[in-house]
Design brief:
There is one protein chain. The protein is an all-alpha fold and 83 residues long. It has one domain (2-79). Helix content is 73%, strand content 0%. It is built from four helices and no strands. Helix 2 crosses helix 3 and helix 3 runs antiparallel to helix 4 (60-75). Keywords: Membrane, Transmembrane, Transmembrane helix. The chain crosses the membrane at residues 12-30, 56-74.
């Protein structure tokens, strides 16, 4: 994994991705901002899962995305229901 980080660090700063991940999780935990961050997490984890699928890796991004969707539904079912 360290070898992969060295290869990726030439093209994109991984510390920026770590900061993005941590900020997404923190915003998701704040009650006033969780709806906005739900969509940010969906985009981030969807992209992560797509990259993992294209590289023939385990789809952990999609597994985490499913957990986020279940949590959001349990938190506010009206988010998914049509009015």
């Amino acid at each position: 994994m360290i070898a992969q980080e060295k290869n990726c660090s030439d093209s994109f700063p991984l510390s920026l991705l770590r900061i993005l991940k941590i900020s997404c999780v923190l915003l998701y935990l704040i009650p006033k901002t969780w709806k906005i961050d739900f969509f940010l997490l969906c985009g981030y984890l969807g992209g992560s899962g797509a990259i993992e699928i294209s590289q023939h890796l385990a789809p952990t991004g999609f597994i985490l995305l499913t957990i986020v969707w279940i949590g959001a539904y349990l938190r506010n079912p009206g988010l998914f229901l049509k009015d």
